[in-house]
Design brief:
Blueprint: H1 2-23, H2 29-38, H3 48-54, H4 59-71, E1 77-79, H5 80-88, H6 97-107, E2 114-116, H7 117-129, H8 132-143, E3 150-152, H9 153-167, H10 179-191, E4 198-200, H11 201-209, H12 212-217, H13 221-224
Antiparallel strand pairs: 1-2, 3-4
Helix pairs in contact: 1-4, 1-5, 5-6, 6-8, 6-9, 8-11, 9-10
């Protein structure tokens, strides 16, 4: 069992590296061809054409991402423990476990405690190549921890603390005293248009679209995922 878990972690890590190369444009056409020729895909996901139609990835890109995701992790799914382990490697100076938990839940569309390749690709397609509205809706879903359709102060506080924990000693300003509360207060000052103590999806989208800084922050997903 330990060997299988280790193999799966290595495979997902390779998948993440392939994803970053794909995002930053260093996965050239020739290299894609070479990699596909070097490694046979033993089990192709059903409906690859359907995934191509549902996402903003090409069939070739899906093949490369799928190979990195499943060839090294034959079960074809990633559980939360493995996801946290992989995500932590990108934030070695902090504790990313809580934020990774929230992120895992956002990808786990079926809410069954595991992420399939299809779940991962659908989410990544939105984050990396989706419309502004799609990215904001996905982000709102991430912040809406209990999935009741609203972001509460308690939920936003948890998110802020998780981000501070993840960034560790590189967080600025330093995590102390009422810093999280200040962030949450500022968030609700901008977002909670009707001052009812919660932020709806429409309020969130409208406030983000009106704020250039927030819109630019949408691009930071490329450095976090």
């Amino acid at each position: 069992m330990a060997g299988c878990t280790s193999r799966c972690r290595q495979g997902v890590f390779k998948f993440m590296l392939s994803l970053r190369r794909l995002v930053f444009g260093t996965l050239s056409k020739d290299k894609v061809d070479d990699e596909l020729e070097m490694t046979m895909v033993c089990h192709r996901p059903e409906g690859l054409e359907q995934l191509e139609a549902q996402t903003n990835f090409t069939k070739r890109e899906l093949q490369v991402l799928y190979r990195g995701f499943k060839n090294e992790c034959p079960s074809g799914v990633v559980n939360e423990e493995t996801f946290k382990h992989i995500y932590a490697q990108f934030f070695p100076h902090g504790d990313a476990s809580t934020y990774a938990h929230y992120l895992f839940n956002a990808f786990d569309s079926a809410k069954n405690g595991s992420i399939k390749f299809e779940d991962f690709v659908m989410g990544l397609s939105i984050l990396l190549r989706g419309s502004t509205r799609e990215k904001l809706e996905w982000t709102f879903n991430l912040y809406d921890i209990n999935k009741d359709g609203y972001i509460s102060r308690e939920e936003m506080t948890e998110i802020v603390r998780a981000i501070y924990d993840m960034m560790g000693k590189y967080t600025y300003p330093a995590m102390k005293g009422d810093v999280p509360k200040q962030h949450v207060d500022a968030f609700f000052q901008k977002m909670d248009k009707n001052k009812d103590g919660v932020v709806t999806l429409d309020e969130f989208v409208l406030a983000c679209q009106e704020d250039d800084t927030m819109m630019r922050s949408m691009q930071l997903f490329e450095n976090v995922i």
